[in-house]
Amino acid sequence: MKQALEEPNPQLAALGAVKGTTVEEGYAFGLVRVIDKSKVQLLGIKFFEEAMAYPPTPPVPCPLLRDPLEGRAYYKAMEKQPDADAIWQPTSTVKTTGFPFLYKKKEVTITGQAVRLKGQ
Known about the structure:
The chain is mainly beta. It is built from one helix and six strands; from the N terminus they run ββββαββ. Strands 4-3-2-1-6-5 form a six-stranded antiparallel sheet. The two termini are about 35 Å apart. The mean pLDDT is about 80.
């Protein structure tokens, strides 16, 4: 039985559940990467326009430590609710498969509840 959608905070309006998923496949030691089955990255050069958003988290000491797949998945989840300001308590799931050095597939899914600040 599903629970009724509750307001997460008196200052936030719940807009509904959202989910964003992105998949990256790497070939030949990661020299060639295919993102979401259509975007290609070769030797670190991206041949596509990038769109990312990150959930508000404690500061990371080095921006290079942030996983770009998490940023893409969060962005896709936010796209599902254009009126949302954030995702309340986002959770991420990571699935990794492959064969060492030759092939690697990583799938990141972000789920949560889209919210909007009241009074906007």
